[in-house]
Each structure stands twice: as C-alpha cells, then as structure tokens.
Amino acid sequence: MGNSFWKDTWLITNRNIKTTLRNPFSVIPNLIISAFFLLVYEGGLSGISQLPTFEGANYLAFILPVSIVSAAIGGAGGAGQSIVKDIENGFFSRLLLTPASRLAIVLGPIIAGMLQLFVQTLLIIGIGFLLGLEVETGFGGILFVLLIAIGWGLAFAGYSVGVALRTKNAQASQAGTFIFFPLIFLSTTFVPYELIDAQWLKVAATINPTTYIFESMRTVLIDGWIFWDMMQGVIAIVIVCAITITFAAVSAKNAVARG
Amino acid sequence: MTLMPNILGVKNMNGKIEVEHLSKTFKKGNVQAVKDVSFTVDEGEFFAFLGPNGAGKSTTVQILTTLLNATGGKATVAGHDVIREPEKVRKYIGVALQETGVDPDLTGREMIELQASIFGFDKSSAQARANELLNIVQLEEAAERRIGNYSGGMRRRLDLALTLVNEPKILFLDEPTTGLDPSNRMAIWKELQRLNEELGTTIFLTTQYLEEADSLAHRISIINDGEIVATGTPKELKAQIGNDLITFTFPSKDIQSQAATIMESYMGEKEVIEQNGKLLVYVDDGTKQMLELVRLLDQEQVEVETVNLSSPTLDDIFLKITAKEVGGVGHGE
Ligand SMILES: Nc1ncnc2c1ncn2[C@@H]1O[C@H](COP(=O)(O)OP(=O)(O)OP(=O)(O)O)[C@@H](O)[C@H]1O
Ligand SMILES: [Mg+2]
Fold first, then answer.
1. What is the domain count for chain B?
2. Mean of the pLDDT values across residues B223-249?
3. Atom of ligand 1 nearest to the CA of B56
4. pLDDT per position as a tens digit, A62-80
5. Pair (B276, B216) in one structural domain
6. Whose CA is nearest to atom 25 of ligand 1?
7. Which helix (H) or strand (E) holds B17?
C-alpha cells in the first residue's frame, strides 16, 4: 500500500493547481499590478528614454523586468500562502496523518507556485509584445529572461514557504511577503544606475540583489549576449536561493517533524 | 468492503493500543500535558478518554497518531511503535483530530477521492470508495459542493468519512461530537457503534461528555490534569465510588458546614462532597446509611431540609474524582 514519491507529489501538486484555479482572486490582483508597470510607465515615463544615458533603447524593454519580477514574486508567494491556508484548515495535519511522503507534502505547493509563476511571466511577456516589445537577442533572450524569472521566483518561494511553515499564520506570512515588494523599488527600477540622484538610493540599489536581476534581464533585452552582465543575475539567484531554500528546508523539517 | 488491495493479512498487525508510562512535557511554557499514562485498548474494544479542558486528551491522541513525540514512555499502535515506525502506524489508523482537516476549495467527493488516492487506491477504486463513504455519512446530495459551503455538522461527517477511507483497524476520534446538534451527534454515535460492532474496528474516542462515554464505550479512563485518575467499565466506575448517592440540602450554609463536619467524622472525609449548596455522600447501602445519617444529624440537632437517594451518574463520579484531585471542593467555604 501507499504510493511512490512521484505519485504523492503529483497528487498534491494537482490539488494545489486545482485550488489556485478556483481562487482567481488570489492571482488576478498581482497580475494586474504587474501589467500596470508596463502600461503606465510605458505611457507616462517613456520620455526618459530620450535621455542620452539610454542610448535610444526603448523604455518598454527597460521596464519589462520590473513587471516580470513583480509577477514572479506574486506567483511564487502563492506557494507559501497555500501552505499557510492548509495549516489553518487542518488539512496539513490530515496530510501528515497519511502515509504520503513528507517531502511531497511540502513540494506540491512549491511546484504549483512555480507553475503559476511561469504562466504569469509568459502572460507579462505576451503583453509586452502586444505593446511593441523588441528583444535584442530574440527568442533565446526571452528564454533567458524566463529562466531568471523562475530562478528568482524559486528564491522567493523558498522564503515564503519558510515563513509560512515557521509562523503557521496567514497575517504573519503575508507581512513577511511584503518585504520583497519594497526591494523592487529600492533599485534601478525606473532609471539606470547612473541617473539615480539620491546617494542613499544608490547604496540601496547596490546591495539589493533585485538590481542584478533587473540588469541581467536588461542585458539580453536591450544590449545583447554580454556574458558577465548576464551572469550577475545568475550569481544573485544562486546566492539568495542557497539562503532561502536552506531556510525553507529547515522550517519544513521542523514542521513535519514531531514536536 | 474489499477495495483495499493488500492491507489485511500483514504480519505483526493487530488492532491494539498499548501505552506504557507515556509522558509529554511541552518546552513552551514547560507544561506537563501528559504524566506517566499507561493503558491498553484491546482489538475491537470501544475505549473512551474522558476529561475536562486541558486534561491532555488531544496531546495523547497526537502522540498515538504520530503527530507528536512523547518525552517519555512507549506506545504501540496496531503492533508498531509510534516513535520508531510511524509510517507503518499511519497505514492502519484513521484519525479525526479535534479540528477537522479538509480543504474548503475541494468538493466533498474530490476530498475523499484525494484521500483514497494518497492511500494508494487507483482511480476507479477511489471513486467507488467515495460513493460508498458519501452514502455512509449521508453527504451524497452535498457531494458536488465545495466544502467551504458545508455546515459544521456536514464538515464533521465528511471528516469522519475521510478517517474511514483506508478501512482502518483503529479509529482515533478527538471530541468528534463537540459542537454538534443532537441529530448530527446521534448520526455519528450510530455510525461509530456500527463500525465497532460490524467491522470490529477498535475505537479510541475522547470526550468531555459523560453520557457519550457512558453510552458508547466498553471501557473508560478518566483523565485529569495529565493523569489517569480512574479506569473501568461504566458499571465499574459507578460501583467504585459506591452504589448509591445520598444528596442532602440544609436551610443555611452554616448548618450545612456543621452537618458536613459531623458526617465527615462519621463517614471519612473523602466520602462527603459539598457542591452547589448540597452535600453529596457516596455509600454502598443507600437506604440503611441514609437512615443512619439522618438519625445522627437529628441527635446533633442539625436541621435537614431535604434528603434524596439516587444512583450516581458518571457526572457524579467525575465530580467526585476530580474534586479529590483539586482537593478542597469537599470542604465548605
Ligand atoms: N503545542 C503546545 N505547546 C504548549 N502547551 C501545549 C501545547 N498543546 C497543548 N498544550 C497544553 O497541554 C495541556 C493539555 O492540552 P490538551 O490539548 O491535550 O488538552 P485536551 O484534554 O485536549 O483539552 P480540550 O478538551 O480543551 O481539547 C494544556 O495545558 C495545554 O495548554
Ligand atoms: Mg483537545
């Protein structure tokens, strides 16, 4: 009796996808906010790109990474929220009482969250193309952008799942999620580094890993295949993922272990 | 009921619960929730754990069902050690915790089918099992509705259905009827009796309701403040503290405490309990001892308002036992 690890993971992931689709309002607001970046800033701020520092690049390609990161965070945050919801409903305990693999119980919501992120990122890129997006490196560049979005989403999913399993409380884990949103703005969000005036914002942008995510996406969207400029995002992801996924794994181990 | 492929006939499996010197201390707040508890529940037995809020019932259930670690002692469920072989234990038990465990975004049918799939049923057996269980807990009409729209009673019944999915040898039910209306409570009682009688399922039930333990269980342990204070059949428990209960009332408080002192010196302190403005006395031979006591009080010129002779209910037993524990309820103001 009992299933393989893969079957358990599939069953639980499938359940998560189903419940996400049944709660469109857990997805739509984030998607709208993300698309908002594209529409409003493209409409209102695109004049900035006439400045010499932009070297004629189009502002749409410049702002697209902001929109993608916002969508990725929203999608990946779904993983943590779904776990908190399960804990509060007692469903998490019900799963722990079955012979299901402990890893599958935690992995299911993460996989579902990553799928949500993937779909949201595709939608945002689609909207970008509708608005006239041009990508310097073509299809390969889009794949790279997707990869970075997934990597950064994974980093955030680790964080949100860790907070969820630790606090077991919806408000606390939502509050935990909010610290990622300011990170979007304390960065080269709307203007390149050289155009940032305030010294404090320059410092913030330098230590904020989101900056390197934006810049590596912008490299392939605007400048071309420039290896080290692309790598800065990959390195940021590896470092942050190492931290947040360890955090998630330790929290998960405590949550499924017996107190 | 032969949908389970190979659950039966597994070596070392039985429907027993054996608990030896179990204790649990929560680090948080340094609470000793369970203190050196030992008991055995035989295969096919219906056993009730009866105790007030905070007695340690849920903590015991969570240890026996592999959700919590004990800090001392040993427990074997279905022939397997709950600490060392939790995976094996989980296959043979069905558990309804104090809080129901359901996903409000699924329908009742989906919830049961998911539970069945996790227990290793293939798709068509899972569907068949869902039909069977929806029928048993009378949720067929609500089967296609989301659980989020279920009433408390429906949720409880669905939760019970989920615990039955794997045809468990042992059922653990933590206060399964708390907060239910009489008709829902009756429905659950009936089903539990059926499972116990027809399928021989061992049942471990916790409750705060004495009548529930009295009418369902073969054997009851009373737990208070983490300790088992009495164990026996409902009949034995009633006999343990005397066959009869004499209840006195007096015209005033002063007279009552005067009477209490007199009766205590005659009966022994433990047998006289002061409660809700009444004096309760547990005795073996009610008629004879009632007359003796009345005579005694008359001699001492203590005025009695009413005297009443009855058989003790489990409520009375519970009050007597826990009163001893708290010490002092028996002693006026
Ligand atoms: N996770 C925990 N951390 C710290 N203390 C706990 C924890 N769980 C329970 N306790 C404490 O252990 C004691 C026993 O609690 P338990 O939940 O087992 O009682 P119970 O008999 O189920 O009560 P109720 O009828 O209210 O459900 C209580 O004092 C409770 O406060
Ligand atoms: Mg309890």
1. 2
2. 86
3. 18
4. 889 999 999 988 888 888 8
5. no
6. B53
7. strand B17-26
